[in-house]
Amino acid sequence: MPYPKLPGPCPPIPGDLLFLHTRDEPRMAAVSRIFSGVHNFIINHVALCTAESELVEAVPPRVRHTSLDDFLEKAHPDEEGAPRVLVCRVRNMGTEQVRTVLSRVEHYIDKPYNETYMPSTEHWYCSSLVQDAWFHGNNGEHVFPETPLEFRDPVTGQIMPFWKEYYQSRGMDVPQGLPGSHPALISRSPHLAVVGCYGNFQQK
């Protein structure tokens, strides 16, 4: 896929979603391998803008506020050292809907990170937080529908060894196929418009 023409860096506004390719570590590398994001980009994390230069994200050990600068800092850098971060805006959403999203997301602060990715209303991972916030902001209708949890290697079709070990260490079976979400799949939503891009993304 040819590399797309994208807008340059853009300060996010409340309600925007920020997608990134985080710095490599085993868990995030395994997340990246499953699906590609918009424009075939490697995307493995998402956060929601709540105020000027302020975001909310679900990262271990809990949901927290983070600054835009800190978020950019954790991105995997491109060849010139720029952070790989996309700024996306939900299409056709009014002020009241965004206000509901922002009110909802405050309820997640300090909630535990969902390390199992199992369906939960008390533990959150990055894309489940975004999915739920916009569900409530859109009058109980999904902007970003649930998608089955996927842990299989796209090449072999087998559960990846990383995820087998990850869940075995927790005394669990791999929750393949249960309802869930993935940041790369959310980035591909037709309800999103790319309004800004920091750095040049790697394509799968």
Give your account of this protein's structure.
By secondary structure, the chain is an alpha+beta fold. It has six helices and eight strands; from the N terminus they run E-H-E-E-E-H-E-H-H-E-H-E-H-E. The chain has helices spanning 26-34, 68-73, 95-106, 126-137, 161-168, 183-187; strands at residues 17-20, 45-51, 54-59, 62-67, 85-90, 147-148, 179-180, 192-198. The chain has a six-stranded antiparallel sheet with strand order 4-3-2-1-5-8. The protein starts with 16 loop residues before the first strand and ends in a 6-residue tail after the last strand.
Q: Report the sheet with the most strands, covering strand number, pairing sense and barrel closure.
A: 6 strands, antiparallel
Q: Element order, helices and strands?
A: EHEEEHEHHEHEHE
- Shape summary: globular
Average the pLDDT over all residues and give the rounded result: 95
Class of secondary structure makeup: alpha+beta
Instruction: Give helix % range.
Output: 25-40%
- Side-by-side strand order of the widest sheet: 4-3-2-1-5-8
Low-confidence stretches: none
Helices, by number, come to 6
Number of strands: 8
The separation of the N and C termini measures: 9 Å
Radius of gyration: 16 Å
Q: Strand portion, in percent?
A: 15-25%
